[in-house]
Design goal:
1406 residues; five-stranded mixed sheet; 2 helices; 119 strands; repeat; PKD/Chitinase_dom; transmembrane helix; PKD domain-containing protein
Length: 1406
């Protein structure tokens, strides 16, 4: 069987295959190369038949890399889906949008589909990409979201504990769905949160490890929008345990350390302030590491220049939660001046002399020192008290000490100064105390004296030889200025012809002396053996001179006798007038003796024998300059009669010299006329021996190089680094000889060029390339050299760079009045000068030294405008001008205020603000206004003008609160932040008032007096509400609280009113309620018999002091065996059911209209019963009363005791009378008690009544209220306790265990008034003077005995005056009665005055 597979479209045989049997499955394989739809024709045949089959199928490349991108959208906006495949043919795209289906068959590798969602959410989109050979199914999410709106970020809490720096933030978004929020905390930590639905309120915390400033940023984004907010947060550690350490005492001007420390705190700024003067010094203490909680101790070096007790204020501060926390400590330090320059001087004494008995004064002074104690010792065993300088500066101040010496002598005072830091001692020079000088007689020995050997004798005689002056001396001063001091008993000074005789400056006498004539004497000098002798004064003066030169000595004018005899002092007087100077004479003579010796120099001439050996030599070596003299020298070592012939080689006549000897150089000279090389021959022969010899030498003759003849030129003095080649040209001046064979060497720093010019090549050029040196000035040398000399010429060049790449950069914007920096940069350039035009009419020359590759120019603009700066630079190679970009100079923002509402009312909530310029110039525009109505929203406004009109801002608040509005007005050069605090309040609505008892929060409308009630006000809306409560009893609570407490003291119905107000609702909202107050319920009486007979009915009666509509009485009877019977009576039943053991069968509902109940009860057996009555109500605690009843088998009978009063007090007309100030005691002994049963137990009871004698009625009184104390048998009435009046005291005698066996008796006591105690000050009699005021005073010493410590309060004093008699002519007796009244009491007293006769004295009455 043959199977053929053909392409039906083309008829191409694709495959042919033979199969053995038809039952087997036959596979035919073929690889299709084209991607298309194929139709195949299969022919199956054998020898007897064939069959045909047609098959259609697609050949495709599988789909690979199918992806989809979908855009997010807002509701009712289209989402766009882009499906892309990397490979595959004839793809089919299927998209399912919720219920909407989209499909396409395309040959493209992408597909776009769109859909509009109306509902926000994440919608799943199903995508299928397939062809005939592959399929790819996947889904994508389509986000339909709202835009993010009103993103806020704020710091709401901050813990500044030293070990816990946790900050809580609040971030809110008013709108936006599918929001991802990333918060970065500024310290490498961040958080990510996702939120589906609005609004988003995110409260989160973060703990910082270190202090510092952090930028906290929250960024919220979804698929369609994004917003971000950043706040700056300062994290610090609060200061705890601030302390200051400093020394107690310091020295002025000497630095000392003040150590600051804190237990916790970081960072901290420490300051020290001198409180008495404005001296401040501060330092910041930074932590060792930013994560430390405490800064280290810090020292501030401080000095104080003024002594005293100085108060210092030390502070430590840092910033916590945006506010500066300051901690202050006040310390003090004692500052001392060190004592320096202690000095002591005697006042008005130039020399330390004084007379005996004269007071002297020592002045003690210090240059510096404080709190100094000074003590002086005068050296005569007397010591004054120590004196103290003030507590502050002592420097510049003085202390004075006065003293008088009693005896003549020499004394050494000393003073000691000391304070806590230093001490100094001053030892004063000797103080000389002398007796006064007596009268003196002066004698003069002569009036004519020869000089220099003449002498005059003065004799001083004292008239009083008893009291001699002490420590005298003579001080002679002569007309020629010479002085001599001789101690001779007195002081004598000779001035011209005046002698002053004194005693050490304390006393002096002047004498006019006879004129003394001085005559000169002539000196001669003797020279002996070259030595000059001065024979006049016996001193040898050795002088140089000729031998045997002799002078003799002669003297004229000297008196024949010596007048210097006797006296206390003998003094030679040397005269100077008209006496020749012998020293000058010697100097002149010495000049005549000077001589100079002549000497001659002698030399020997040595000759040697003839020799045959000779030598030839010449000067200048082998090189000779043209026209110069060439020297040739011939010489032989041995020989005589030698002849030299020298041929110069220039065709001139040879030179010949003969008859010469050896070892004698012979010189030849010659001058060459032309330059060239010459061969010189020297012929020498010995005429004696006939020996001959010759010597040849080459002499080079060249022109000498002469610097003045050389002319140097160069192609450029200034050259560019772009073409740094210079040609130097050397030439010889016209008419001057040109040097030959010249080597030229050119040297500059880093460069050397050598060139050889052979022959005479002039002008000569040498080229140099300066490409290896930097731009600048370079100096070099050009050296010309040949065989006969060299010269050096100087050369210089200036290598400049062309100016390239000039860029002038100004600021983007600048502020009027501030310095603007203009930056100038260059790529290249040198040797530049320039100028700058700042564009405002100001041009400046740029200093040459300041122009570099990068330099700055500064300028201050005074007018706001737009400017461009131009800079022009130039050098020899050219100039460049460049302009900066245009920039603005603007006026900064300032002088603004924020005006408008302080209070905003909700629900309107509209805030109106205005930005007003009050001072300064208008700021440059445009302005940017950022308004933050924290924490609500932020607005931004841009405006072009803020010149004349105000800018209005509005904002609507949605909720009440206190808001800080910040408005930042800025332009490009500055800003001003304006702030205003706004309070937003809500209207008060639906005000309600309720009352509850403090121990029960349930509202009540009925309560009990004296019980504390809580009044509360509530409202549906309203902020900052202030409540005024009026309780209806005249009491008002004005504290403004929402809840207050109050107690009512009287029962009744009260109308309670509350008025609520706030800043936007000043009229207020009122709520009212009615409250019923009841008096506290209590048992008024509980009546029963103490002893009853068992099995008989005993009555029990309970009377209440008030009435309750809902009340229950619980009676419990408990016998001595513990058996209890309980009965309940009352209405309604629910009140009694409050009892824990309530039983229905023992309850009986009865009406209690009077507030009391009567209950009969039968005691079942003989026993002692404990009776407990409990009264239950709804609005107050239970009232409990106890009692005891004895149930017996029978009742005992007895007769009543008889009680009668023994003494007075038995009736109101015969009471016991006692004064209120005295008190009284009553006891049973005041009564006779009879008819008592034998062996009966007796109980005594007292009762007190106030008795009205007119109505004969008694009013019961509680004795304890009046301080009446009751004992077993007595009662005591203390002084000052009972008011005035009549009282009845009843004594009841009761027999215990008997039925109605008691008796009573009454005693009456009358409390009466005590007479007033009146006393007059100064006694009964007083003697007073005439016309003198007299004080009459009875109030100070008078009192009411019935008032405890009352004094004279309430007492009225009336004074009278009467004249009694005149005892004699000198006095009168006056009596001053006084009448003192209080209530019904009156008392009189008198005082007698004995007054001298005159007008009656004034009387002062009190």
């Amino acid at each position: 069987m043959t199977i053929n597979m053909m392409d039906a479209d083309t008829g191409e045989l694709l495959a042919s295959q033979w199969a053995a049997a038809p039952e087997y499955l036959t596979q035919t394989n073929h690889t299709f190369l084209d991607t298309k739809r194929y139709t195949l024709f299969f022919n199956v045949s054998n020898d007897v038949s064939d069959a045909n089959v047609t098959l259609t199928f697609d050949v495709d490349v599988p789909v690979t890399g199918a992806t989809a991108v979908i855009t997010a959208a807002r509701p009712h906006e289209e989402c766009t889906l882009n499906v892309i495949i990397e490979g595959g043919t004839r793809p089919q795209f299927y998209v399912m949008w919720d219920t909407e289906f989209s499909a396409a068959l395309t040959n493209e590798s992408y597909f776009v589909s769109r859909h509009n969602y109306s509902v926000i959410g994440i919608h799943e989109v199903s995508i299928s990409v397939q062809n005939s050979v592959s399929m790819s199914n996947f889904t994508v999410d389509a986000y339909v979201s709202y835009d993010i709106a009103d993103l806020t970020l704020s710091q709401v809490d901050y813990s500044d504990e030293p070990t816990f720096r946790n900050v809580t933030f609040l971030s809110t978004i008013s709108n936006g769905t599918h929001v991802t929020t990333v918060t970065t905390f500024g310290d490498d930590f961040f958080t990510v949160m996702y939120h589906d639905d609005p609004p988003l309120i995110n409260r989160f915390s973060h703990e910082y490890d270190a202090v510092g400033d952090y930028n906290v940023t929250v960024e919220s984004f979804n698929h369609i929008s994004s917003m971000s907010k950043t706040i700056t947060l300062t994290v610090n550690v609060a200061i705890v345990g601030f302390s200051v350490d400093l020394p107690d005492k310091v020295i002025t001007g000497q630095p000392f350390d003040i150590t600051f420390s804190v237990e916790h705190g970081n960072p901290v700024t420490f300051k020290i302030l001198k409180t008495t003067k404005t001296v401040e010094k501060s330092a910041s203490a930074l932590p060792v590491a930013s994560n430390e909680t405490t800064v280290p101790a810090h020292k501030i070096t401080f000095l104080i220049n003024s002594p005293g007790s100085i108060d210092l204020q030390a502070t430590a501060e840092n910033t916590i939660k945006g506010e500066v926390d300051t901690y202050t400590k006040f310390v003090s330090v004692d500052v001392y001046d060190v004592i320096s320059d202690l000095s002591v001087a005697m006042e008005d004494k130039k020399v330390p002399y004084a007379k005996t008995g004269e007071e002297i004064k020592l002045i003690v002074s210090l240059t510096s020192g404080s709190r100094v104690g000074v003590s002086c010792d005068f050296g005569d065993r007397t010591q004054p008290e120590t004196k103290l300088y003030g507590t502050r500066e002592a420097g510049g101040k003085t202390l004075e000490y006065t003293h008088t010496y009693a005896r003549a002598g020499n004394y050494s005072p000393s003073c000691n100064a000391s304070n806590i830091y230093s001490a100094d001692v001053f030892d004063f020079d000797t103080v000389v105390i002398q007796n006064e000088l007596p009268a003196i007689i002066l004698l003069l020995s002569a009036s004519i004296v020869a000089v220099p050997d003449g002498a005059v004798t003065y004799t001083v005689e004292l008239t009083d030889m008893v009291k001699l002056p002490t420590n005298p001396f003579c001080n002679w001063t002569f007309a020629d200025g010479s002085k001599r001091i001789v101690y001779a008993g007195v002081k004598m000074v000779f001035q011209n012809s005046l002698l002053i005789i004194g005693n050490n400056g304390i006393q002096s006498t002047s004498y006019r002396l006879t004129t003394i004539s001085l005559h000169k004497a002539v000196k001669r000098y003797l020279r002996v053996g070259g030595q000059l002798h001065d024979q006049h004064d016996g001193v040898e003066r050795r002088q140089r001179g000729r031998p045997n030169d002799r002078h003799t000595d002669s003297t004229r004018g000297i008196p024949e006798r010596n007048p210097c005899t006797g006296g206390l002092a003998t003094i030679k007087i040397k005269g100077t007038e008209n006496v020749p100077d012998w020293k000058e004479t010697l100097r002149q003579y010495d000049a005549e003796l000077l001589e100079s010796d002549q000497s001659s120099r002698v030399g020997d001439v040595h000759r040697r024998a003839n020799a045959r050996v000779w030598r030839f030599d010449y000067r200048e070596r082998n090189n000779v300059a043209l026209s110069s003299i060439a020297w040739f020298t011939a010489n032989t070592l041995h020989g005589t009669d030698i002849t030299y012939i020298l041929d110069y080689g220039d065709e001139t006549k040879a030179s010949e010299k003969s008859g010469l000897i050896s070892d004698t150089p012979v010189e030849f000279t010659h001058s060459y006329a032309t330059v060239g090389n010459y061969s010189v021959r020297l012929n020498a022969f010995n005429n004696v021996s006939g020996d001959r010899a010759n010597l040849d030498s080459l002499v080079i003759v060249q022109n000498r190089i002469s610097k003045p003849d050389i002319k140097l030129t160069q192609t450029h003095k200034i050259l560019s680094t772009d073409d740094p080649i210079v040609t130097f040209t050397l030439d010889v001046a016209s008419g001057r000889a040109k040097p030959t064979d010249v080597h030229v060497t050119l040297t500059f720093p880093g460069i050397a060029v050598i060139k050889h010019f052979v022959g005479t090549v002039w002008p000569a050029e040498i080229q140099c390339n300066f490409n290896h040196i930097r731009a600048g000035d370079a100096n070099g040398n050009i050296t010309l050299t040949n065989l006969v000399g060299s010269e050096t010429l100087s050369a210089s060049i200036q290598l400049q760079e062309r100016i390239r790449g000039l860029v002038v950069t100004g600021p983007k914007v600048a502020k009027v009045g501030e310095t603007v920096v203009i930056t100038v940069t260059l790529d290249s350039g040198s040797h530049m000068v320039g100028n700058v035009d700042f564009g405002d009419g100001t041009e400046e020359i740029i200093p040459k030294d300041s122009i570099t590759r990068h330099f700055n120019l500064t300028h201050t603009y005074t007018i706001a405008d737009t400017y461009s700066v131009s800079v022009r630079l130039k050098n020899t190679l050219g100039s460049v001008t460049e302009y900066s970009d245009t920039f603005k100079v603007q006026t900064s923002v300032g002088g603004l205020t924020l005006e408008g509402d302080d209070i905003v009312k909700i629900p309107e909530g509209v805030l109106h603000l205005k930005i007003v310029r009050t001072t300064g110039e208008p700021a440059s525009t445009p302005l940017t206004i950022d308004a933050t109505y924290s924490p609500e929203t932020e607005d931004r406004l841009r405006t072009q003008s803020l010149l004349d009109t105000d800018i209005e801002l509005t904002h609507t608040y949605g909720r009440a609160g206190d808001y800080a509005v910040k408005v930042n007005v800025s332009n490009d050069v500055g800003s001003q932040i304006l702030s205003k605090n706004i309070s937003v309040y809500e209207d008060i609505t639906e005000l309600t008032l309720s009352v509850s008892e403090s121990d029960d929060k349930m509202p009540v409308t009925t309560s009990i007096t004296h019980r504390e009630l809580t009044f509360s006000v509530d409202y549906r809306s309203g902020t900052n509400v202030w409540s005024l409560f009026k309780f209806g009893d005249g009491v008002t609570d004005e504290t403004g609280h929402k809840s207050v407490t109050h107690k009512y003291t009287q029962p009744g119905n009260y109308d309670v009113k509350v008025t609520a107000t706030n800043p936007v609702q000043t009229d207020g909202v009122t709520a009212m309620m009615q409250l019923k107050m009841l008096a506290p319920l209590g048992i008024e009486t509980f009546a029963f018999n103490d002893t009853v007979t068992f099995n008989t009915s005993a009555p029990f009666s309970v009377e209440m002091n008030g009435k309750r509509d809902e009340i229950c009485f619980e009676f419990k009877f408990t016998d001595d065996a513990g058996a209890t019977t309980t009965l309940w009576r009352g209405t309604p039943r629910s009140v009694c059911e409050r009892a824990t053991d309530f039983m229905t069968k023992t309850f009986r509902e009865i009406s209690v209209p009077t507030g009391g109940v009567d209950l009969p009860y039968v005691f079942p057996r003989v026993s002692v019963y404990d009776i407990r009555v409990t009264v239950l109500t709804v609005i107050e605690p239970d009232v409990v009363f106890h009692g005891t009843v004895t149930a017996t088998e029978k009742v005992l009978l007895c007769s009543n005791p008889v009680v009668t009063v023994k003494t007075e007090g038995d009736s109101p007309s015969n009471p016991i009378v006692t004064r209120r100030s005295a008190g009284i005691e009553l006891s049973s002994i005041n009564f006779d008690i009879t008819n008592l049963k034998k062996d009966a137990s007796v109980v005594l009871n007292w009762e007190m009544f106030e008795h009205d004698i007119d109505t004969n009625t008694d009013t019961p009184k509680t004795m304890s209220d009046y301080g009446v104390e009751q004992g077993t048998n007595t009662i005591g009435i203390s002084p000052h306790t009972l008011p005035y009046g009549l009282y009845k005291f009843t004594l009841t005698v009761e027999l215990i265990g008997f039925e109605i066996c008691f008796g009573s008796g009454d005693v009456f006591v009358s409390i009466v008034k005590t007479p007033l105690d009146v006393n007059i000050k100064y006694g009964a009699l007083r003697l007073v003077g005439s016309n003198k005021p007299v004080e009459m005073n009875a109030a100070d010493l008078s009192n009411d005995p019935d008032v405890k410590e009352g004094g004279s309060d309430g007492m009225v004093f009336e004074w009278y005056c009467r004249k009694e008699k005149e005892e004699d002519a000198r006095s009168t007796v006056v009596v001053m009665p006084v009448v003192v009244t209080k209530d019904s009491r009156q008392h009189e007293a008198s005082h007698t005055l004995k007054v001298a006769n005159s007008e009656p004295p004034p009387v002062l009455i009190e």
